[in-house]
Amino acid sequence: MPLGERGGWERSESRYCGVETDFSDDVPSLLSFNISTGGFDYVLAPLMNPSYRPSLMEGKGSETQVLPVSGSDLVLAPSQWSSHVVGKVSSWIDLDSEDEVLRMDSETTLKQEIAWATHLSLQACLLPTPKGTSCANYARCVNQILQGLTTLQLWLRVPLVKSDDATSEGLVRRLINTDSWELWNSFRLLCEHDSKLSVALDVMSTLPSETSLGRWMGESVRAAIISTDSFLTNARGYPCLSKRHQKLIAGFFDHATQVVVSGKPVHNLPKASDSNTEGTQRHPLRSYLDYVAYLFQKMEPLPEQERIELGYRDFLQAPLQPLMDNLEAQTYETFERDSTKYIQVCCYQRAVAKALVDRVPDEKASELTTVLMVVGAGRGPLVRASLQAAEETNRKLKVYAVEKNPNAVVTLHNLVKLEGWEGIVTIISCDMRFWNASEKADILVSELLGSFGDNELSPECLDGAQRFLKPDGISIPSSYTSFIQPVTATKLYNDVKAHKDLAHFETPYVVKLHSVARLAPSQSVFTFTHPNFSTKANNQRYKKLQFNLPSDAGSSLVHGFAGYFDSVLYKDVHLGIEPTTATPNMFSWFPIFFPLRKPVEVHPGSPLEVHFWRCCGSSKVWYEWSVSSPTPTPMHNTNGRSYWVGL
Ligand SMILES: C[S@@+](CC[C@H](N)C(=O)[O-])C[C@H]1O[C@@H](n2cnc3c(N)ncnc32)[C@H](O)[C@@H]1O
């Protein structure tokens, strides 16, 4: 049974909890005890008798040998194997041992166990933590296996520690001297970043720093294995977790990571809880499961908008090209539902109202008419916001709605008729760069911004439109700035890599970032200001940036850059998606993601040096980007060969 419901969350967002068990050759009983009686969703169970060593079978005649696996495949239906059992590869295996017999036994056993798991249609197998300091041979062997897998996922078991915080965990000290993230990182890089390889974290009683933990949110962590030793005891004698552990587990739930309870019960519960109401014996780990379920159920329900956007999380989308292409009705519809952008105190209506008041003093309000042009009017929401601002401020307005999409112009005409705006609003069906206006505007209102600010060619369009702005006229927005920050984003990287071509690595994507670790605060990249009457102005840009990772973070892998924008609409009225200043409750823009062809490992103390170019040709605009330090990457998107925005 899943862990109940998170607040008012839908069933589809259920989370599951498994239990780590010892080897049993009676799998039906194992399932009956842990699932039917115990209430767990699945078992994490060894597939092979732990005393098995291939070398001990030598000379016994291979034709009579039967692998000491956990019973015949027939003891469970395929669907039960698949949904109730995660295979645990023998923990004794050591593929990097100096002892050749052990090494060879390990390799043989690993391959046999994975073959058996595949035969059973299991969804996943847990690989034991690498032993010793090297994991090259283990990774080589796993990589070979990965090439042949289609559905089975492999979870590498890694303790959640970082060297400087690993104090009393004897196990960890024996296994690794380094940050366990580095162990995971080496292993997955040796395995060519295969998407069928993920990580299962052993959660200990001591946790690394927040920044160090944050890195895991950008990794594909499939399971968090919590040992019973990590639980504290509450006033009633029941298991509970520290506040930091609770926060971590909530973070895992939010990232679809499953929880597995492991170990012997270490809490002496009050006598009455040993059996249930029917008098049957309770599962010894039931109180741990109940506590994990309680943690999930007490999570705040997702806000409405987050729920709607669940399906977009970490889903790569090609950015819109509203200049070159004509947007569809559905796209306009989505924009128009974002009332924050147009109406609320912070946004367009407020900006226009302020500009109108600055332009026309109160005493002239009944005489002067302000000429306002909405350039790129779409289906009219900025026309409406501007007219509302005029009404709010008692200013007289004459509006031109300029739009190059003939389909949106149809809607504009209907809107004007429906609202009775014929005497106030003139519709111009034309590209703003080529329109010969009969008069000049006091205020130019536009929303031509992409997730990265200038990436939908607002600069080029507004440069064209400013011909018909009075010399002292106002542009709303008056400026916009793009921002980037380095991120670990394993899922996004693997999704880009799945296309197996260069072009996808040289394309920025619009994406609702979720499973990403933001490694350093974002920094500004390009700024554009409007109007810009300087004769020397051009829209090419180059920016070099240096990011320093927090000193307690440990090393990280940069898969690319999250991009955002912030825009000054007018004076103190801004609108944007840069995380620290983002306009609340606005959903028109997801961030953008610039991938790196080869992820770059960065360490605190050695800055990440990044270069971004905005390049302009006669028919297109494009970005190029690269990293020069700590290790250089190839230049991305040279000459806009893979991605460009058409003029
Ligand atoms: C991002 S949409 C915004 C539409 C509308 N203002 C809104 O907020 O819903 C940009 C609009 O500008 C139009 N557009 C883009 N470039 C243009 C140009 N050069 N001349 C006229 N319209 C343009 C597009 O067709 C599209 O309707």
Question: Helix tally?
Answer: 18
User: What is the radius of gyration computed over CA atoms, rounded to a whole number of angstroms?
Assistant: 30 Å
Overall, the morphology is elongated
Count of extended strands: 26
Biggest pleated sheet? 8 strands, parallel, barrel
Q: Which stretches of 5+ consecutive residues score pLDDT under 50? A: 165-176
Mean pLDDT: 92
Strand order of the largest sheet: 1-2-3-4-5-6-7-10
CATH class of the largest domain: Alpha Beta
* Distinct compounds present: S-adenosylmethionine
Task: Using the coordinates shown, work out and report the CATH topology of the largest domain.
Answer: TIM Barrel
CATH superfamily of the largest domain: Divalent-metal-dependent TIM barrel enzymes
The CATH architecture of the largest domain can be given as Alpha-Beta Barrel
Our measurement of the CA-to-CA distance between the termini, rounded to an integer number of angstroms, reads: 55 Å
Count of the domains: 3
- Which structural class matches the secondary elements? alpha/beta
Considering DSSP H and I runs of 4 or more, what fraction of the residues is helical? 25-40%
Strand content: 15-25%
